[in-house]
Amino acid sequence: MSEEKEQGSQVMGFLIGLLTGAVIALLYAPKTGDLTREELRVRSEELKRRADELQKIANDLSQQAQVKGRELVDEAKRQWDKSAVGQRSTETGARSAQGGPTAKS
Fold it and tell me: Is residue 103 part of a domain?
């Protein structure tokens, strides 16, 4: 999951750099104010659209990670129950629930 966060940070850094570069280029370009404002508006709309897409992707990745995490927890529980230690603790719990002697008694 840290790889996903790192990748998301890199993408956001790239987008911020892209926006900064675009603004600087527009400020130094020899265009009229009307053309510059229109170009800024168009580019900001494009950047917002891309940011929305990235947010959707991040949400999807987060949901996938949650599902995978639950699957891993379930698998770990199954493996624990199959192991000798897990079976002993299950048997001990069953005996104590029935009122029988436990290993500690």
Answer: no
- Give the chain's domain count: 1
Q: Is-above-0.85 flag for pTM? A: no
102 domain-assigned: no
Spatial contact of 15 and 7, defined as CB atoms under 8 Å apart: no
Whole-angstrom CA distances from 16 to 13, 44, 54, 59, 67 are 5, 12, 13, 20, 31
CA atoms of 26 and 18, how far apart (whole Å): 12
Helices (H), 1-105: 2-28, 33-82, 84-98
Average pLDDT, the chain: 80
